[in-house]
Amino acid sequence: xxxxxxxxxxxxxxxxxxxxxDGGQPVQVRCIAERHGIPSPFLVQILQDLxxxxxxxxxxxxxxxxxxxxSPAEITLADVLEIVEGNAEPKTxxxxxxxxxxxxxxxxNDLSAARRERLAAITLAxxxxxxxxxxxxxxxx
Length: 141
Prior knowledge:
By secondary structure, the protein is mainly alpha-helical. It has one domain: Winged helix-like DNA-binding domain superfamily/Winged helix DNA-binding domain (Arc Repressor Mutant, subunit A). It has six helices and two strands, in the order H-H-H-E-E-H-H-H. The longest helix has 20 residues, at 101-120. The protein starts with a helix and ends in a 6-residue tail after the last helix.
């Protein structure tokens, strides 16, 4: 599965917000952009899309930034991808006159449904936990 840059950046931004959710403080765009190598102007556009959809909220001012509006355990990857990519299911075939085209379209729709179902089973909290496990324990001396 290939992700567009916009989709990948939206996922990274929401994961960053998920990591900071329990702290209750908004996360500044600059911090997200620097930590993940995302161009700030593009990130602002993505966060505005997420805000319009109600997935994130923003706070103005020097200590402002963005926060998730719901717990990371309640937000799935499917939620994020649907906001960024839309819910475009295949509807027609390039060759409508072919008697085989409907079968191909059916397979494409089945694949889209399976993708959506799998993404709906993965929450932001799951991914934050995976990232913490992958990083391993931190030892301080």
